[in-house]
Amino acid sequence: MKKDFHISGMHCASCAMNIKSVLNKVPELKNVEVNFASEQASVEHDGDFPKDKVGSAVESLGYKAHFDEDNKDQTPEDAAELESKRELNELKTKLTWSTFFTVLLLIGAMFIQAPEVLRNPWVMLIFATPVQFWVGAQYYKSMWASLKNRLANMDTLIAIGTSVAYFFSLAVLLFEEQLIQLGIEPHVYFEVSATIITLILLGKYLEKRARGQASSAIRKLLDLQAKNATVVRDGKEIMIPVDQIVVGDTIIVKPGEKLPIDGEIIKGETSIDESMVTGESLPVEKGVGAKVIGATVNKSGSIRIVATKVGENTLLAHIIETVKRAQASRAPIQKLVDKISSVFVPIVIILALITFLMWFNFGPEPAFVRGLVSLISVLIIACPCALGLATPMSIMVGTGKGAENGILIKDAEALEVANKINYIVFDKTGTLTYGKPEVDGFEIVARDTDPQFIKNAILAVEKLSHHPLAEAVVRYLSNDTEVPEAEGFVDRSGFGVKATVNGKPVLIGTKKLMESENIEVTKEADKLAEGWRDKARTVSYAAIDNKIAALIGISDLVKPNAKEVVATLKKMGITPVMITGDNAKTAKAIGEQLGIQEILSEVLPQDKANKVKELQEGAKVVAMVGDGINDAPALATANIGIAMGEGTDVAIESSGVTLLRGDISLVPKAVNLSKSTVKNIKQNLAWAFGYNVILIPVAMGVLYPLFGILLNPILASGAMALSSVSVVVNALRLRTKKL
Amino acid sequence: MIVNVIVIILIIGTYVFFFMKKESKAVAVGNQVEIMVSGGYKPDVIRVKKGSPVTLKFNRKDPSSCLEELVIPDFGKNIKLALGEITSVEITPSEPGEFQFHCGMNMYHGRILVEN
């Protein structure tokens, strides 16, 4: 049998030859091939593959063999995290040594009272050399690799800058007299090259640690996933890994355990802590038939659930995928930065050379040395990293913070748009109200018809409709009596329904429906309806045999915090708008309860998108908040769609922002988050641009003619190290921001 | 005098070296391609067919932190590349066009050309 595997750590073709020869000594193997370029080994073996033997043979030479099986349980995130940890440790070791040598060098260079030995330039050479070529090796490697592709990066600048200082000093030691003859002041700068490397390494170390925190949101989400679950198979309870669960499996979840996947409760009652996924702080009571979300925690009762979504289809998997995508997305604001970054380093090199020329030709004596020092300062102070990190860091922290609070942001563009919202349109049902209407008025107005028949006929027709209002009526009227069959059911979307019961036409719906069918609405009915509408009830008319038979008043409870949310939005300078299919009067009454003045009532579902379009006229930025199910076109038409849902039903892909729980207070929070994030991006960009635009000229020496100030390269490296760290730290501030 | 001449040559050299290089040629790839990550991406322009999944195998050899992250914005990918390892990314281009990939700080670039 043939087996291919990856070997890491090879750095030349002879490494491959060595590995080949040790593998040839493993008796089970034949036809060993090791390719240096692809870092792959290919072997043939009899029987089982002797993994351990091969692994230790490769390791004996200091390389590592990677077999596919090793990585089965390891996600790419795990691998990357291990890698970062390893890199951090390596950085730490280098930093410790680098600091040790640098401190000795600085003492020797700065203090006249320092021991003679530290001031000896040859000793300084000994201290500076490991810093330059061991600690600084990565800058050389990276520079060389880039130059081969005619590219340059920040490492190129550091490598050139420190090399100039180091090799000039070396030249001073070796050719002191010749330099003096050329009129060049012989001064060694070993402490400069070492300090630059140390400070930049320190900056890198701090930056790396901080960046680990910035991407912690994904890590946290991944850790939420349960590892094992108890599944009933063939009547037996067995413990299996979560990824082996299939749709339809019955799973037992005991109190205190995590729910492994998305499913539905088939037995038992419990309260579930969903805070980790939806951000909902109170446990949610659930019983048979209720949908449950994977990675939430079962608090009180033992339940059985049937798996409905597994693997990459679970809500948690969707959330993780969305956050990852968002963190990879690019903000439109970044286009300019991209243009600059791609030419930044070569331009800085040219500027540094020009700086040297200016000093050398026009500067005061010692001109050569001053030119050299300024050249180093320019190379070192330039910080393309801060520019490159500015936007992605803020987006990463911002979207991560959102996910922790139940706010999923699709991409960077959604963040930028949400920051500029003028109008927020609420699709009333399910956002401002619970979306669970209840009948709280039922009045029979036809005196000459059997009241029981009226009730039965209404029930028969409404049973066939799936409209939430109809469902409320069904709940209200349901009793044990026999219900007749309704025939010829017609749904007139936005108006009502029509059918025949016991040969009599039954019509249930709005006043408009009655008018269009030429049914006279009596004065008595009208008066009653008006009174109900003032109480914010939606009124349905029921006509039997072409005569008004009953009025049904239906209320949808307003969410308790809706009023506060409306007030908050107004304070933020955003105009809240309510859009609803309700009658104008009912809508106005609800609007008054909530403090919303802009009301679009009697809007048919298919017209919602047009209403949004009308609002957009005059370059207004309109957000639409809806449940994402029957208002999808309006959500898509709005500049930004905010879908609000409960758990697993949320349509994540379709909207710019998804709120993972039906809590309306998330709307201003989402706006706040995007405002803070965009502000943070702007701060970062201003800092990164300002830093380079101001400090590069200072390093060139523009302050010298005026104030006699010339930047010390050591200060330049300090500034540069601080600059990229501060961008990351500023982005991390977003994490503690109160939404 | 000699110093001036040398430095001016260096300035011109820097300009020519970095700004006057030829565009690299697109490499047509089937369902997978190994991209060396060392001082940039090699190949840095790849040509793929619309609709068929492609596995990009990034082999990071360069220790520079500039190259540790890989971003393919249009495909929503943002991955850390482990040093000395091959990190695979699968994409399925559904639209023809030109799509960028680049390092975390957007200093190194590559392009994916999607053709019908």
Automatic annotation (TrEMBL), chain A:
Keyword Transmembrane helix listed: yes
Transmembrane regions listed in the UniProt entry: 95-115, 121-140, 152-175, 187-206, 343-362, 368-391, 685-707, 713-732
Pfam families documented for this protein: E1-E2_ATPase, HMA, Hydrolase
GO biological process: copper ion homeostasis
EC number in record: 7.2.2.8
InterPro entries noted in UniProt: ATPase_P-typ_cyto_dom_N, ATPase_P-typ_P_site, ATPase_P-typ_TM_dom_sf, ATPase_P-typ_transduc_dom_A_sf, ATPase_P-type_domA, HAD-like_sf, HAD_sf, Heavy-metal-associated_CS
Molecular function as annotated in GO: ATP binding; ATP hydrolysis activity; copper ion binding; P-type divalent copper transporter activity; P-type monovalent copper transporter activity
Gene3D superfamilies attached to this UniProt entry: 3.30.70.100, Calcium-transporting ATPase, cytoplasmic domain N (3.40.1110.10), Calcium-transporting ATPase, cytoplasmic transduction domain A (2.70.150.10), HAD superfamily/HAD-like (3.40.50.1000)
Assigned keywords, A-Z: ATP-binding, Cell membrane, Copper, Copper transport, Ion transport, Membrane, Metal-binding, Nucleotide-binding, Translocase, Transmembrane, Transmembrane helix, Transport
Homology family: Belongs to the cation transport ATPase (P-type) (TC 3.A.3) family. Type IB subfamily.
Protein name: P-type Cu(+) transporter
Organism encoding this protein: candidate division WWE3 bacterium GW2011_GWB1_41_6
UniProtKB/TrEMBL annotation, chain B:
Residues covered by the EfeO-type cupredoxin-like domain: 14-114
Record key words, sorted: Membrane, Transmembrane, Transmembrane helix
A Pfam match: Cupredoxin_1
Protein name as it appears in the record: EfeO-type cupredoxin-like domain-containing protein
Record InterPro entries: Cupredoxin, EfeO_Cupredoxin
Positions of transmembrane segments: 6-21
SUPFAM superfamilies: Cupredoxins
